[in-house]
TrEMBL record, chains A, B:
It comes from the Bacteria. It comes from Tautonia plasticadhaerens. GO terms for biological process: L-histidine biosynthetic process. The keyword Glycoprotein does not apply. Binds 1 zinc ion per subunit. Binds 1 Mg(2+) ion per subunit. One of its GO terms (cellular component) is cytoplasm. Its main location: cytoplasm. InterPro entries: PRA-CH (IPR026660), PRib_AMP_CycHydrolase_dom (IPR002496), PRib_AMP_CycHydrolase_sf (IPR038019). It catalyses: 1-(5-phospho-beta-D-ribosyl)-5'-AMP + H2O = 1-(5-phospho-beta-D-ribosyl)-5-[(5-phospho-beta-D-ribosylamino)methylideneamino]imidazole-4-carboxamide; 1-(5-phospho-beta-D-ribosyl)-ATP + H2O = 1-(5-phospho-beta-D-ribosyl)-5'-AMP + diphosphate + H(+). It is an enzyme of class 3 (hydrolase). This is Phosphoribosyl-AMP cyclohydrolase. Pathway: Amino-acid biosynthesis; L-histidine biosynthesis; L-histidine from 5-phospho-alpha-D-ribose 1-diphosphate: step 3/9; Amino-acid biosynthesis; L-histidine biosynthesis; L-histidine from 5-phospho-alpha-D-ribose 1-diphosphate: step 2/9.
């Protein structure tokens, strides 16, 4: 697998002056929605801590904070399915980020382009929409 | 101002069998992203408790839970700027909802179509994008 870091040029992000305007949770986190910059599809929502926002600005690729693993991670660092950031927006209350990005491969660890691949059907159950864009077993290993 | 409830016919939502599959926070909440069903613009993110999800299904219009006011509220109940739900999606982890809806007026209490009307500029500051679609003082009163 190709390490995506080696393909992308080092980027210097903007000075993160806006960070001090954000409202973080008591745990120092902020939710970040990622939207496909091209098709407009909402791909995922995850949490960022301050270092993850700074790393996202610095590298031009999304970084998040895993609440279960209690560490920052580079989206696509294992799979190669990185997100190239086009624009970062902040909501009116300053407590949610919207990141418009170009998604390589799929955002979802289950192989789908978007994590929101299930819809509520008329009978109140969940049904899958669309088809996976990659095989998660091939990307993450058979244990996934 | 016209009460939006009186305009919409009573709707019977699907049986919310999927509710038991959702992962709620310790406070019994789940984040809900609202996306414009027509243009694809991400309009807002807010929190729902279980009654808010049920009311959203039952009425076909979004309801949320205000963490500051500690109560459920009908989006657009004051302003008339309701959101007519077209589809509800659930993410792979079952801990985020994506609601595709037809927005009447604007989603943002500051008068913009989307709450994400500010973008991070190259200098690290926030700049407004676009223009308001309504005057919040006229809709919510001069104190807003």
């Amino acid at each position: 697998m190709t390490a995506p870091e080696s393909e992308s040029e080092a980027q210097t992000g903007p000075d993160p002056a806006f960070l001090d305007l954000l409202k973080w949770t008591a745990d120092g986190l902020i939710p970040a929605i990622v939207q496909d910059a091209e098709g407009g599809e909402v791909l995922m929502m995850a949490w960022m801590d301050r270092p993850a926002v700074v790393d996202t600005l610095r590298t031009g690729q999304t970084h998040f904070y895993s609440r279960s693993r209690k560490l920052s991670w580079h989206k696509g660092g294992t799979s190669g399915h990185v997100q190239h950031v086009e624009e970062i927006r902040v909501d009116c209350d300053g407590d949610v980020l919207l990141i418009r990005a170009r998604q390589v491969g799929g955002a979802c660890h289950e192989g789908y382009r978007s994590c929101f691949f299930r819809k509520v059907e008329a009978d109140g159950r969940l049904g899958a929409t669309g088809a996976p864009v990659f095989d998660p077993r091939a990307v993450y290993g058979a244990g996934s």
